Amino acid sequence: RWDVLVLTPWLAPIVWEGTFSRDILNAQYVQKNLVTGVVTFAVEKYWFFIHGFMRSANKYFLAGHQVNFYLFTDSPEKISHLQMAPENNLFVIPVQNHSRWQDISTSRMDVISTYIHSQFQYEVDYLYSIDIDVQLLAHIGVEIIDALVGTITAHPENKAYETRPESRAAVPEGEGDFYYTASFYGGSVSEVYKLTRACSKGIMEDRERGIEARWHDESHLNKYLLYHKPTRLLSPEYYWDTEL
Q1: Where along this sequence does the record place binding of an alpha-L-fucosyl-(1->2)-beta-D-galactosyl derivative (predicted)?
Q2: Phi-psi category of residue 62: left, alpha or beta, with phi > 0 → left and psi -120 to 50 → alpha
Q3: What is the spatial distance between Cα 184 and Cα 200, in angstroms, rounded to a whole number?
Q4: Which CATH number fits domain 14-238: 3.90.550.10, 3.40.50.150, 3.40.440.10, 3.40.50.300?
Q5: Closest CA to 61 of 122, 163, 130
Q6: Known binding positions
């Protein structure tokens, strides 16, 4: 591909369709006997998206490989039986609701880091967080697997880093490189633990100061990935807005 940027300044690959051989990568992945986890949250009105997300993810996310789906929801009773592929497992985990959607958003990092420490690190090798209102329309394969993975947005000018110096999410003027969505990120379970723990700590410290970052957990994610460079970036193809 010559029409897009395929390498970062720190020499991490940017994955676009046409830049990899899925057959070769599948063969390498199978030999390692790995398990990948997916974390998603369906809290408050978002339980409506559960079946659409799970049907598409069950079909398209690492198809043919073992995947554990961890669905956090405040409405487990609303989830009817979902038919999963033989190699996939679904775990429904009750989680507390919050009165404000911002609090739901910022609490995710704490929940993920807590469960990695207590459970996920013993069950999966890689872990990805994906928003429940995402629809997978084509195969997402093992080309996404790496130590620390972020997905860049199609129009970063529509988002901006947190710049207030009193926030732990603040990015100094002129220091940013890519803008990453909090709707799709992941990596090895150990690296995702470091990321979510650091972001959760920053969110808590902001809260103690009475500050809320501009884009909540996404602002903290971008601050972390600025100083802890991802080893692989996913192109905007992996989180595309049909309105664009």
Answers
A1: 218, 241
A2: left
A3: 17
A4: 3.90.550.10
A5: 130
A6: 41-43, 46, 131-133, 218, 241
Annotated catalytic residues are 218
Token pair belonging to 169:
């999410």
The rounded mean pLDDT for the chain is 92
pLDDT at 236: 94
Which residues are CB-neighbours of 215 under 8 A, at least 6 positions away? 159, 162, 182, 222
pLDDT recorded at residue 106: 65
**Binding site membership for Mn(2+): which residues?**
131, 133
Mean pLDDT over 127-146 rounds to: 96
Q: Which residue type is seen at 128?
A: Y
Segment holding 89, helix H or strand E: strand 88-94
State the pLDDT at residue 158.
66
H/E segment holding residue 243: none
Residue 181 is encoded by which pair of tokens?
Answer: 């969505």
Distance of CA 208 to the CA centre of its chain: 26
Beta bridge pairs of residue 180: 152
Record the pTM.
Answer: 0.94
- If you average pLDDT over each of 79-88, 202-211, 220-229, which comes out highest? 220-229
